[in-house]
Design a protein that fits this description.
Number of strands: 3
Strand content: 5-15%
Largest sheet: 3 strands, antiparallel
Oligomer: single chain
Distance between the termini: 43 Å
Strand order of the largest sheet: 1-3-2
Structural class: alpha+beta
Helix content: 55-70%
Shape: elongated
Radius of gyration: 16 Å
Length: 103
């Protein structure tokens, strides 16, 4: 049975979305940030200390994660807290943890 144009379009959109996610995850700094944030909400100073990432790199990578809607923010006074926002990212991070971190 042949794939309809509608089904093909949905498959192409899904493939595009998956590739976008994999591109974001292909950066080791962003991967480490997501791993750390995945363990619970973190503020910038927590992330900086835990991952030894310095402010320019940290800000740049957090901006990418926010733009791609993988993390969400919450402000408390002067602190900005980050948590995971994407169910897909949470599932992918869980799978990666299972195979690469839990050895």
């Amino acid at each position: 049975m042949a794939i309809t144009k509608s089904e093909l379009k949905k498959m192409q959109t899904s493939a595009h979305d998956a590739c976008k996610l994999m591109k974001v995850l292909s950066n080791s700094d962003r991967m480490m940030l997501l791993c750390e944030i995945g363990q619970g909400e973190k503020c910038v100073s927590d992330l900086e200390a835990a991952l030894d990432l310095h402010q320019p790199t940290l800000s740049q990578q957090l901006t990418v994660l926010r733009k791609e809607k993988l993390v969400k923010t919450r402000r408390e006074g002067k602190q900005i807290y980050y948590s995971l926002a994407s169910e897909v990212a949470i599932a992918v991070m869980g799978l990666l943890y299972k195979y690469y971190c839990k050895r």
